[in-house]
Amino acid sequence: MADLLQQYSFLWESLDFYLILAFVLVCIYQLVFYIRLSRASRPSAPAPIAPSAGVSVIVCARNEQVNLRDYLHALLTQDYPCFEVIVVDDGSEDATSILLEQYARDWSNLYHTFVPRGARVISSKKLALTIGIKAAHYDYILLTDADCRPESRYWIREMMSGFSDQSTELVLGFSPYFENDTILSSLISYDTLFIGLQYMALAKAGHPYMGVGRNMAYRKDMFFAHNGFQGLLNERAGDDDLFVNKVATKSNTRIVSTRDSLIWSAPEQEWRTWFQQKRRHLSVSTHYKLSSKLRIGFEPFTRGLVYVLLIVAFIFGGGYAKCIALGLWLLRLLWQYVAINIAARRLGIRHFGIEIVLYDIFLPLLNLYMLISKHFRRKPIYW
Q1: How buried is residue 319: exposed, middle or buried, by Cβ count under 10 Å (0-12/13-18/19+)?
Q2: Please, are residues 158 and 261 in contact by the beta-carbon 8 Å criterion?
Q3: Rounded to whole angstroms, how far apart are CA atoms 344 and 351?
Q4: pLDDT digits over 4-13, tens only?
Q5: What class has domain 55-287?
Q6: In which order are the strands placed within the sheet that holds 253-255?
Q7: pLDDT digits (tens, 9 = 90+) for 103-130
Q8: SS3 (DSSP) at 240
């Protein structure tokens, strides 16, 4: 009987040891991950590109009369010596075309074109972008959306500074959302910041995998050298991140994350529409390269493992295992809080408090649910 008790005691002690070891290893990875996230927001200081480098700002618009009226002026008045703004009307049914004609009479650097009605394509957004890029007069393409407002008059200058290195063909920026006091706004801000820091951190580490189409620049010749969106035309979405996943390399991609390089966008106002947007973005990520999937999937895997090990420690672990697991979990949350808010302050985004704990649990579960449910949906996801 004594021998049996001794064996059980040894097993429980071994369980505690392996629980603590696993928890330590997972938390170390998480701590390193958040260190990289906080560093991703550090602005680089590249030499300014020659002012003679012209840039074409491409904006696709569908029923964007109100947003163009509010934000187009901020694009047209940028402090940059040589640029044009090309707005592609993607089948608008409001007064978008009339508004563009009015603006074009007053602004010589504004051009507008349109997607032919009746064009039979899976993704009209990709067609609209291709039309805009083909119409561009300059060698550099800078993309944004009709509902976006630059942080300052130096947005073009800051984004173009990323091309100071001759080997750079692709520049990725960051685009937060306008904020208000609702829970949804806070969640969207956190989710956008986290995703942005992740793709910027991996790009700085030499593994670019995505970007956002409302704040991205590339050389026009690179777009055509890679046959534009060829190979992506069967997907309704992915004109930005799938294109980056296709063409970005360690040597040709650069991150610009200065405050003046930001461009703000209007967020979804309802939970239902945000869920739809989130599902659309996640559906695109399933088409990433395998290496990209593994890199971005390891963090939520280890995050989930933290909570699994914490639960196991409290159910089966001894006193020391419980204390160490709880202490490491709290340390991880503290460092997550510090790292996220350091990055948020640098980028001019709201401060996050205790809600980080809820987002830390809720967002991975939501992503997992949407990825699984995607396989049971018959209705196509439109861009």
Answers
A1: exposed
A2: yes
A3: 7
A4: 434 444 444 5
A5: alpha beta
A6: 110-114, 83-89, 55-61, 140-145, 216-219, 170-172, 253-255
A7: 999 999 999 998 887 666 667 788 889 9
A8: coil
To the nearest 5 percent, what fractions of the chain are helix, strand and coil?
A: 55, 10, 35
* Rounded-to-integer distance, Cα 137 and Cα 50, Å: 17
pLDDT at 322: 83
CATH 3.90.550.10 region(s) of the chain? Answer: 55-287
Nearest to 103 by CA among 117, 115, 116, 85: 85
Residues sharing a CB contact under 8 Å with residue 105, sequence separation 6 or more, in sequence order: none
CB neighbourhood size of 185 (10 A): 18
Q: How far apart are CA 300 and CA 359, in angstroms?
A: 12
Residue 372 identity: I
CA neighbor of 83 nearest in space, from 116, 104, 58: 58
Query: CA 109 to CA 56: how far, in whole Å?
Result: 10
Amino acid identity at 248: A
